[in-house]
User: Fold this.
Amino acid sequence: MIRVVITTYGVLHGPAPDEGDALTIDLSNALRNPHANPDMRYRTGLDPMVRHHVLTTPGADRIVSLNVDRIRALVTVHTLQVQPIITRVHIACRGGRHRSVAVAEEIARELRREGIGVEVYHRDIDRPVVER
Assistant:
């Protein structure tokens, strides 16, 4: 059963998805940005090299574990309601291709390991690379 829906997006491609209440994680000014490296600029956070680059940034493991804890707590609260609801999570970075994608996939992996059903959508992953 799906309990968590994670949507990644790029703040330079538009506002957050309009899906009601959501936990928002903004990585726009956090972690190493693969965009700065020409070898990774046109890849995505699904690429093992980009994923490694993002997730080995000092502090990345803390961001992932803290947010897994936050999401787990929300899932618990939402499950206790008369009508259990989906926990929505929005993860942003500047372009929506690198950091948000890598972190979302890692958070989803950790939640699934705990038996929590997760769907992940990458809204801007196929959009043109932001050149600013």
Notes: The chain has a mean pLDDT of 95. DSSP finds three helices and four strands in the chain. The CA atoms of residues 20 and 132 lie 30 Å apart.
